[in-house]
Write a sequence for this structure.
């Protein structure tokens, strides 16, 4: 958690936190319309803080406490001097954002605090969509996009592809915390004297192929969408290069952290935002 700070520096603290801990979302927020930029940056900071709990907190009860702190702060609506929480409370009040959406996302990250793997791909997908659909819907409200009875089908697949890529990229951190974030059939199995986790690596590769297939299916919908709608799932622009890097020869998806050059990330986000290219 960030230390308490004065109200005058809250905005700067939120922007710096997002830049440090969620650079992709930070750049995406910079590319958003000016009327939504600050609020999207705040949302990026919140998701960065709750999202890193399963990646950095090995003790499950302690992780639950940190996530519960967020639930309590947002529900209370009381400003405390914590820059991210105070800014998010302000956004929720000004934009009339429904707190159950934030609760859904927090619940999704809470499910990742436990060592037991997901029972199936369907259970993994449900967890991912709990987080990503909440994020997408909150962005929709901040961007003031018109509400529809049902979202376009490609948006759901885009959210799933983004969430899968995020999950796969962070497999090394999750394993370091004693957790396996993929389905049980892909769980770590040590084989041979080298200790290679062949089943786990195959599981990562299979999920990466599934995510890449989803990206192929949503390209047209993304390209034809309005710029504001594309901002709901702009992370899709980086999902493919992350997934390609995960599956390249010589990369160990269980130990090696995937990285993309900042300039490349900025370029891909810009062209996706402005031109609809993935």
């Amino acid at each position: 958690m960030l230390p308490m700070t004065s109200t005058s520096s809250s905005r700067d603290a939120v922007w710096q936190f997002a830049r440090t801990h969620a650079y992709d979302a930070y750049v995406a927020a910079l590319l958003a319309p000016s009327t939504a930029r600050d609020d999207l940056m705040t949302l990026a900071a919140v998701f960065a803080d709750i999202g890193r709990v399963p990646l950095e907190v090995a003790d499950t009860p302690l992780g639950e406490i940190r996530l519960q702190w967020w639930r309590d702060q947002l529900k209370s609506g009381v400003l405390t001097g914590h820059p991210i929480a105070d800014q998010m409370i302000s956004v929720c009040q000004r934009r009339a954002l429904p707190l159950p959406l934030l609760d859904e996302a927090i619940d999704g990250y809470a499910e990742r605090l436990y060592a037991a793997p997901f029972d199936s791909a369907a259970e993994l997908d449900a967890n991912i969509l709990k987080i990503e659909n909440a994020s997408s819907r909150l962005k929709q409200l901040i961007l003031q996009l018109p509400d529809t009875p049902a979202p376009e089908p490609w948006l759901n697949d885009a959210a799933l592809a983004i969430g899968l890529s995020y999950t796969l990229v962070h497999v090394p951190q999750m394993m370091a915390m004693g957790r396996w974030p993929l389905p049980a059939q892909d769980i770590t199995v040590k084989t041979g004297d080298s200790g290679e986790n062949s089943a786990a690596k195959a599981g990562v590769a299979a999920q990466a192929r599934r995510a890449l297939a989803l990206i192929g299916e949503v390209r047209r919908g993304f390209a034809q969408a309005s710029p504001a709608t594309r901002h709901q799932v702009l992370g899709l622009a980086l999902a493919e290069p992350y997934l390609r890097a995960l599956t390249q020869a010589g990369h160990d998806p269980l130990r090696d952290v995937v990285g993309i050059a900042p300039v490349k990330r900025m370029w891909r986000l810009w062209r996706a935002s402005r031109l609809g290219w993935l």
About this structure: Residues 20 and 26 are 9 Å apart (CA to CA). Confidence is low (pLDDT under 50) at residues 189-195.
